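Quick log. Single chain, no ligands specified.
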Amino acid sequence: MTKPLPKLSICIPAYNRPLELIEVLQSLARQERGNWNVLVCEDHSPRSAEIAEVVRDFSNEHSDIDVHFVINEKNLGYDGNLRNLLDNASGEYCLFMGDDDILADGTVKRVIDAASRPNIGVILRAWKSVNKDTGKDIEQHRYFTEDQIFPAGAAAVASFFRRSVFISGLTINREAALRFHTNRFDGMLLYQLYIVGRILLEMDGYYISDIVAIRRVGGEHFFGSSESEKDRFVPGQLLPSQSLTFIKGLFEIAAYIEEQTGAGVYDKIARDLGRYSYPMLEIQAQRLKKKEYNEYARKLAEVGLGKYGCFWLYHYTLMTFGPSLCNKIIRNTKKILGGTPVLGNSAGQTIR
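-> predicted structure:
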């Protein structure tokens, strides 16, 4: 008798982080057992053998969890490895987890419950960031205060697009994603945004208001290690030019979805990026002198953000008060409101 396919595959793109991967897998071991399995795709890193040993030990220790492991024959990079996970997964849905993040306890069941609703193509989730060394909470990212359904269409794409940059906990319908496979965006570190955009024009989105994923801040990144990434990013660094390249990628993918579908998504995505452009500015305001930061902001404006008033409000506030005070105000505001302020109308329908 053929074994039924799992509802969910937890998909982990692994590269050079065996110790962090141990903690990711341990967070999976704490989940309620059910109709899910685990897939790790190791992207031909220098520590490939150590990662293989970590996965083997975890699988032996937790024989009640169905664990699969793939070692890529060559380094595919972030975007290529996501496609490889989709190709090799067996679940109806794929929940992506970074190899240095953690899945919050009890959340696999929440995701499977959401995926069991009819016509769900993408599941977004609340998440939080913590200090990697101390485990202390830094910030919670609750986009909406309650669970919501987002009917398929351009408004749903705009609501999910920017919020899908952080990939851990993001869950997509695998069969739908496979129909849109392309290497066009390799090296941008944003492949999931293209997939999310295409799927949500045909299927509904679901937002889980509980914290599903935990991002550990302070680790080293290896973006720029693959052939497709090396001209855009440098491992371990976060240069202004890299931030600009990354943000240009957001607009490029939005433009391509518009070109391919004519669905009216570009303007909605661009407006959303403008309203929530604070992190794009703050990331370099933390690192640059005022003159250099001002030049960086000018270049961001030229990318397409300069037409939105929120962008200039964030920019001049950062210039005047500095990122530390601005961050404190924003975090306190989120705590008071119970989540991120919704700027503009939400396309979602609250689940009662």
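The chain has 13 helices and eleven strands.
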